[in-house]
Design goal:
It contains twelve helices and twelve strands. The chain is an alpha/beta fold. The protein has two domains: 241 residues, Aspartate Aminotransferase, domain 2 (3-Layer(aba) Sandwich); 123 residues, Aspartate Aminotransferase, domain 1, CATH 3.90.1150. The protein starts with 16 loop residues before the first helix and ends in an 11-residue tail after the last helix. Bound molecules: pyridoxal-5'-phosphate.
């Protein structure tokens, strides 16, 4: 069948038709006034989605990975120390990038499934009275394990030690779907991409810089050319992907029209339905504690001796539905249901139903309908529909 099936991978995410149309544009001269009418609203929209008044927004033709590189190369120098937690594949890859750029990464190792522990950040910052640590890095939502970390708590750890380090957050799989507060959490650099919460095709690295991060640029000596934010100060320094930027402006409008609070509540409700299903199946999340449960992706542990990758392959081959596999340490041990971006209760139900069929086909002891029924109870209990939420 060649028609469009929803995907349940944690990026790229499903695209609203209106966004697809907005991205499909005739050729435009990016030196024209018309382009200004696209890039300016796109940046203003991103700033609002970041919940910031004064973040400088930079948008590169790249992906989230390019955003990581933008963050470190524009603010740091070779040999600088960075303090960073590792609890999954994405935090791992950002650490690897730091090391390959000649930064000295002080790595706080966590279990894959554990949220980043602010008290461990605090301990190290407390000992660093010479302020050799130049940046504190954290991944808000570890997409590989479906683990949310408490960014506000890490901010508090920095403040409590009066440490001047820059605070850099990977929000690639949280921004636009989960509550992310650039100003309130005093984030200095926030990194995301187009193909997750913004519901766009891949192709944009989206980055916010605080005034403090902007001030760090002039002394930062890491080499940078393509990702130099200074070059972004004037007209676009090379050819921008105009259609994607037009889509981004619309994506921001859509998120802001829905209302960020409503967007976050929608993802929280969808995620609790997915978790109710997982519980009904008798399976467990990779995320160890409720505080660590992600509202955008659920990584589900499969029974010992079962290869979780078979679920992804079977669902794709039999039902034309994509689920996420396990990465790195959790390869073969988890499969992931992505529920970020353009996702509704009813879409989530179809993903849950597909996961049930797939697991039953593969011989796991799953009662068909059990997860769907558990999620339905959550989704029926929407505010305003007169149905009391199940206990
Ligand atoms: C997807 C993702 C990335 C990588 O983004 P790309 O756009 O694939 O480069 C980085 N961090 C997190 C948390 C992600 O989910």
């Amino acid at each position: 069948m060649s028609f469009q099936h929803p995907v349940f991978i944690p990026g790229p995410t499903n695209m609203p038709e209106a966004i697809r149309r907005a991205c499909d544009m005739p050729t435009m001269d990016h030196r024209s006034a018309a382009f200004e009418g696209i890039i300016t609203p796109a940046k203003d929209g991103v700033r609002k989605v970041l919940q910031s008044d004064d973040a400088e927004v930079f948008i590169f033709p790249a992906t989230g990975t390019g955003g990581w590189e933008t963050a470190i190369t524009n603010t740091l120098s070779p040999g600088d120390k960075v303090l960073v937690g590792r609890n999954g594949m994405f935090s791992h890859k950002w650490i690897d990038m730091c090391q390959r750029h000649g930064l000295e990464a002080i790595v706080l190792e966590h279990r894959w499934g554990e949220g980043l522990d602010a008290s461990r950040y605090a301990e190290v910052l407390c000992e660093d009275s010479a302020h050799e640590i130049k940046a504190v890095l954290a991944t808000h939502n570890e997409t590989a394990t479906g683990v949310r970390s408490d960014i506000k708590a890490i901010r508090t750890a920095i403040d409590d030690t009066n440490h001047p380090a820059l605070f850099m957050i990977d929000g690639v799989s949280s921004i636009g779907s989960m509550d992310f507060r650039f100003d309130e959490w005093k984030v200095d650099v926030a990194v995301t991409g187009s193909q997750k919460g913004f519901m766009l095709p891949p192709g944009l690295a989206i980055v916010g810089f605080s005034p403090k991060a902007m001030a760090a640029i002039s002394t930062a000596k890491l080499p940078r050319t393509y990702f130099d934010v200074v070059d972004m100060g004037g007209p676009f320094p090379y050819t921008p992907p105009v259609g994607l930027l037009n889509g981004l402006a619309l994506a921001c409008d859509m998120l802001l029209d829905e209302g960020l609070e409503n967007v976050f509540a929608r993802h929280a409700r969808i995620a609790s339905g997915v978790r109710a299903a997982i519980d009904a199946w008798g399976l467990e999340l990779c995320a160890e504690t409720p505080a660590a449960y992600s509202d955008t992706v659920s990584a589900i542990l499969t029974p010992k001796g079962f290869n979780a990758a078979d679920i992804c392959a079977h669902a794709a081959n039999t039902y034309q539905v994509a689920f996420g596999g396990g990465l790195g340490e959790v390869a073969g041990k988890v499969f992931r249901i992505g529920h970020l971006g353009m996702m509704s209760d009813v879409m989530a139900l179809s993903g849950i139903a597909t996961a049930e069929m797939t697991m039953a086909d593969l011989g796991l002891n799953i009662e068909l309908g059990s997860g769907v029924a558990a999620a339905q109870e959550i989704y029926r209990a929407k505010p305003g529909n007169g149905i009391k939420k199940a206990a």
